Amino acid sequence: MIVKWRFGDMKMNRKLLLSFIMLVSIPLVLMGYYSSVKYTQSIEQKTIAYSMKMQDSMMVRVDDYIEDMMSISSIPAYIDDLKQNLIRSNEYYAERQHDSLEPVMPDHFPQLLSIQRGIEGELGFINSIKRGANAVYLFDKYGNSYYSIASGGIRSHLDASYAYWLDKLEHSKGEAALLPTEKYISNLQSEKYAFTVVRKIMDRSLQPIGLIAIDANISVIDDQIAELDQVTKGKSLIVDQAGNVIYDSRKQLVASNLITDETVKQAKQWRGSFFHTEAGEQWLNIYSTSERTGWKVITSIPVSELTSETVAVRSVIWITTIIAVILSVAVAIVLSYAITKPLRRMASLMKRVQEGNFQVKFPVKYRDEVGLLGSQFNRMTVRLEQLIQDIYEMETKKNKAELQALQNQINPHFMYNTLESIRMSAEVNDDSSTADMIATLGKLLRYSISELDGYTVLRDELQHVQHYVELLNYRYPDRFVLQCEVEQELLNRPVIKLMLQPVVENAIYHGLDERKSRMFISIRTVVSQHVVAIRIADNGIGIEPDRLAQLNEGLGNPRRFGVAPGPEGEGAKSGGIGLKNVNERIKLQYGPQYGLSVSSVPEEGTEVEILLPVERRAMRSG
Fold first, then answer.
1. Rounded mean pLDDT of 434-454?
2. How far is Cα 582 from Cα 579, in angstroms, rounded to an integer?
């Protein structure tokens, strides 16, 4: 069975508690959640804005550095001595070439030494202009090299590097070219990384006479990136437009190509930010692009680092929210019980009033709505008690009137029958037995004319019936036999007066069978858990079923005997006045569940059962 929950069926304190929770706790929780989310978003936005600003500043400095390197690469075009020595180098090596292009060992070393010293002296000057330039290489058009090294040695495979640089400048007309970071081994067998600016050296007729290459160690970017990574606690990556890694703050991807990497692919706009997950950890990627070189710097920040501060703030927010919720719920509980306690007290008092106790009083402490309700409750109980007392007094007077009316019905009827018996006996016998009859009649009259609103005991009721049967036997000698089988402990049980005699009288005058010489009347008792049954049986002519049903209906027992109620008053007419009066008196004294019922078998006899309570009840008539 499914029980539908309804708010209106809840107790008042639960309604108030639920209302407090909905009005206070839920807004607090939502406010805490909204505050933590907005704070996290604010931190992310500020981090992105600050990181982009630092990236732009860093890229400006890198761009200026590269621009300076490009400017330095153009210096040889303005130094005539350098250009003359480079032309001398070209002429020197041109004279020593055979048609087979096989090189010939030089035989004028002083001339070669002069060329080398002139070129390398100028290169030393160029190399000292800008900090961070590892090496400056100068090549004539035959690939013969001259260089100036600041630190770390020269490239070990310089001829291969020259071929690579020359290929990149194939279509150049003297413009500088910025080449991505390369990994190389120096002649000192150390591993180096450098990005390079290369440019053709042109004579006055704009013909190439050589090539200059300036290697810049990526350590020059470290100074620019270190501050950014220190602030963001992340890692930075610089890639060119082809996906070549120019710089990696962790030194793991330098000189590699990441054109297929998902992080590089997502950084497709000029600048922006995005999230990605790597090895189960979430990263915030912020990127921007250099307008001068096209290099893209990507800074990756772990979200755990980004939100480390927000986690602490969020914890404080949630702890504060939980404490506020607990306090609000505690206050709600106290207030709900404080408000509903007087109402529960009043409900308890109402239950006691419902059980019949009208002496209860509601203690009025305050003049609020509950106090006013309590005052009205007290007035109501006083008024109810007064009304019930009035009704009780009215019922008492009514019962006395009814009992008096019943007595007035019984006494004339009984006395008429008794006097008729004495009259007939005197006419027939004219002897001393009349005196005995009159003495017995006196006992009957004294018992019957006393007040009927008092109690007697079952012993006196049985004696009264015996006197009645004795009088009948004077009229009809030895015609009636009375047998009493009553438990000894019931003889002193209080009962209403004149309860048995009318039933016996009804049995004799309505059940006498003229075909039988004697009529036996038995009175016996049966005690059960809840009732005492007094059964008065005779061996008379019995009652026909239809008339028996009407009789029980008149006594108020139609359903007990399986008959439908007839028209009002029909049963009363068919039943004797004595049975009806006794039945009504019992119901008035003990309640509607007690009284008389009749059972009978035609030609065999009739039995009347009187049901009384086991314990004596207080008299309803007062």
1. 68
2. 5
Domain count, the chain: 1
DSSP tally for the chain: helices H, then strands E: 16, 17
CA 96 to mean position of chain CA atoms: 98
| pLDDT tens per residue across span 23-61 | 777 777 787 777 777 777 787 788 788 888 888 888 888
CATH assignment of the domain containing 508: 3.30.565.10
In a domain, 222, yes or no: no
E strands of 262-335, at which residues? 271-278, 281-289, 296-302
Domain extent at residue 480: 390-613
- 466 has pLDDT over 90: yes
Cβ neighbourhood burial of 164 (10 Å; 0-12, 13-18, 19+) = middle
State the sign of the Cα–Cα–Cα–Cα dihedral 325, 326, 327, 331: positive
> From residue 42, how far is each of 273, 288, 317, 391 by CA, in Å?
15, 20, 15, 80
Element (H, E) at 177: strand 177-185
Asked if the structure places residue 250 within a domain, the reply is: no
SS3 282: strand
Predicted confidence at residue 560, as pLDDT, reads: 44
Residue 62, amino acid: V
Long-range contacts of 356-363 (CB under 8 A, 24+ apart): 358/382, 358/384, 358/385, 358/388, 359/385
Q: What angle do CA 147, 153, 154 make, to 5 degrees?
A: 45
Tens of pLDDT along 477-535? 889 999 999 999 999 999 988 899 999 999 998 888 888 889 999 999 999 888 999 99
What distance in Å separates the CA atoms of residue 222 and residue 119, rounded to the nearest whole number? 32
CB atoms within 10 A of CB 55: 26
- Does some domain include residue 568? yes
User: What tens digit of pLDDT does each residue of 107-130 get?
Assistant: 567 888 888 888 888 888 887 776
Model pTM score: 0.48
Structure tokens at 243: 């996906």
Q: Residue 561: inside a domain, yes or no?
A: yes
CA-wise closest residue to 149 among 90, 195, 213: 213
Closest to 130 (Cα-Cα) out of 185, 200, 66? 66
Instruction: Give the model confidence (pLDDT) of 357-411 as tens digits.
Output: 877 888 887 777 777 888 888 888 888 878 888 887 887 777 676 666 655 555 5
State the CB neighbour count (10 A cutoff) for residue 254. Answer: 21
Instruction: Check pLDDT > 60 for residue 22.
Output: yes
Q: Is 194 exposed, middle or buried (0-12, 13-18, 19+ CB in 10 A)?
A: buried
